[in-house]
């Protein structure tokens, strides 16, 4: 293990306690409830840097969908924040404008229990605050090679334990455990099974497999996050006349899949060429995966549809 300190790169301004401040001034107490118990929910949104006739702009991908899920996550945990979707979008775009990033950017909105109450509770006296910061982000996992994945011995959190369809901060210890297990065993990423043994998703991404020309992904009732990229992939498949099935997937099906890929805002679309040491297909990027991946990057980079275009200076 390297003991080199990684220097975090970030854009200078954040939204914190109802205003835009310098990131260095966005500080919370060590007693903060969310820090102790993971009482928060969050989102992850990408903005792609581009230029048109020399004029810089950022294409923010499906910001409205991300904030719909953000508000749904709050609803699931029974907490209100005091901002509606339009206000959240406005605040985010203003923050991006202020940071004026000339790079691909990741936006991290977080709603968290900012009190210093001692107990893990989601009651009215444990008020949630909004914080947003932005960082430059290239590829989260390599997009130009096939990944190896390990079926995790840690099961995906179930809907009646911590709902996976909400993006709950504390739930990510589940992802961290699976990622650690996979990384320690030399794999790039983990694949979660549900408690009843069906394929759910990766540690921070949804999964698709291809069998006999059909794109298959677990239904939203199989303990997955209802991914924005997952939805985009399904739309692309429809346009490309690729049949899509949402149905439960057995573990052994991924071993004999012709193709498989992960998708998510962070990872975008990355293909899998090996699961638990079994090579998928011919070990190369499959035809359907290639179509989806190329079209996905085309859409987000061009900033044509479902993108909010933000002119930069
Ligand atoms: N599943 C999990 C557990 C995730 O954390 C993410 C990343 N947000 C996804 C799936 C993909 O969701 P999206 O496409 O909305 O980013």
Please describe what this structure looks like:
This protein has 7 helices and 17 strands. The chain has helices at residues 33-37, 63-77, 85-99, 172-184, 228-239, 251-255, 287-302, and strands at residues 13-16, 19-22, 40-42, 45-52, 55-61, 105-113, 128-136, 147-151, 189-193, 199-202, 206-211, 214-217, 244-246, 259-264, 268-275, 278-279, 307-311. The chain is globular and about 50 Å long. The strands form 2 sheets. Strands 8, 9, 10, 11, 12, 13, 14, 15 and 16 form a 9-stranded mixed β-sheet that branches. β12 (214-217), α5 and β13 form a beta-alpha-beta unit. With 313 residues, it is an alpha+beta fold. Bound molecules: 4'-deoxy-4'-aminopyridoxal-5'-phosphate. 4'-deoxy-4'-aminopyridoxal-5'-phosphate (PMP) is lined by residues 44, 201, 204-206, 225, 227-230, 264-266.
